[in-house]
């Protein structure tokens, strides 16, 4: 049985706490793999998640030793040292969440001007509520806006983070404000795991290879939200 979460954790520590299965303030590569699997990611994607300890183990290890951790473990008590450039700046240098900056990001980047918008597509036309969300184009613009000079590592890390976020959260092709806020403070990961464990329907948001292949085959588009795709049906294919 795992120990309870320590008190007074920063938002960034809470963001990664889901992967610290036994709450020992150390995240192993094995915990990262199993964490992604618990969220519904494929085996291949979860293996790709092992790039995280490869790049971020040493910055967190520096709070404890000058020598790299031979097991590529991540130390969550110093997770703020793994902050990279070209990010949103939503976490400050101590790992605390800047809520006002989060709201400002949506105010600037959310391009939906109307609450209800007619969505014409190759499938049936539907009306989708879009206010308070970021589409793929908005996320590209956000990533482009945050890139700083001579920081290819930061550009790459930020791109991978937004890609993973969209794959996990998308609903109607967009990332919604309250979902993203719950990602930043870490609470959404626990909810996704619980929904997957307690319900046969599971977590109904997100986008996977079955969505891509099934919708492309049936409707000639990868945009499942334009075709009213039944997630449960896609799982049974």
User: Ends: how far apart?
Assistant: 37 Å
Unreliable runs:
114-121, 232-237
| Beta-strand residue percentage | 5-15%
Using only CA atoms, what is the Rg?
19 Å
Number of distinct beta strands: 6
Sequence of strands across the biggest β-sheet? 1-2
Helix content: 40-55%
Backbone structural class = mainly alpha
By DSSP (H or I, 4+ residues per run), the number of helices equals: 11
Shape: globular
Biggest sheet: strands, sense, closure? 2 strands, antiparallel
Which sequence of SSEs, written as H and E, runs from N to C?
A: HEHHHEHEEEHHEHHHH
What does the average pLDDT come to?
88
What are the defining features of this structure?
two-stranded antiparallel sheet, 237 residues, mainly alpha, 46% helix, disordered C terminus
Describe it.
The protein is mainly α and 237 residues long. Helices cover 46% and strands 7% of the residues. The protein is built from eleven helices and six strands. The strands form three sheets. Strands 1-2 form a two-stranded antiparallel sheet. A two-stranded antiparallel ribbon has the order 3-4. It is globular. Mean pLDDT is 88; it is low at 114-121 and 232-237.
């Amino acid at each position: 049985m795992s120990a309870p979460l320590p008190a007074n954790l920063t938002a960034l520590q809470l963001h990664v706490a889901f992967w610290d299965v036994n709450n020992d303030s150390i995240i192993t590569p094995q915990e990262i793999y199993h964490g992604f699997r618990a969220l519904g990611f494929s085996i291949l994607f979860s293996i790709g998640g092992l790039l995280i300890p490869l790049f971020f183990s040493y910055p967190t290890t520096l709070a404890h030793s000058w020598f790299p951790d031979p097991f590529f473990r991540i130390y969550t008590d110093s997770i703020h040292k793994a902050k990279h450039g070209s990010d949103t700046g939503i976490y400050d240098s101590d790992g605390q969440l800047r809520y006002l900056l989060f709201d400002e990001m949506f105010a600037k980047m959310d391009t939906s001007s109307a609450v209800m918008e007619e969505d014409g597509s190759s499938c049936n036309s539907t009306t989708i509520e879009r206010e308070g969300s970021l589409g793929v184009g908005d996320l590209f613009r956000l990533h482009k806006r945050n890139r700083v000079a001579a920081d290819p590592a930061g550009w790459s890390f930020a791109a991978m983070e937004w890609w993973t976020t969209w794959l996990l959260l998308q609903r109607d092709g967009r990332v919604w404000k309250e979902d993203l806020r719950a990602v930043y403070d870490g609470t959404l990961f626990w909810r996704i795991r619980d929904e997957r464990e307690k319900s046969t329907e599971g977590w109904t948001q997100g986008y996977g290879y079955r969505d891509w292949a099934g919708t492309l085959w049936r409707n000639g588009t990868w945009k499942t939200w334009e075709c009213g795709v039944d997630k449960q049906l896609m799982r049974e294919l």
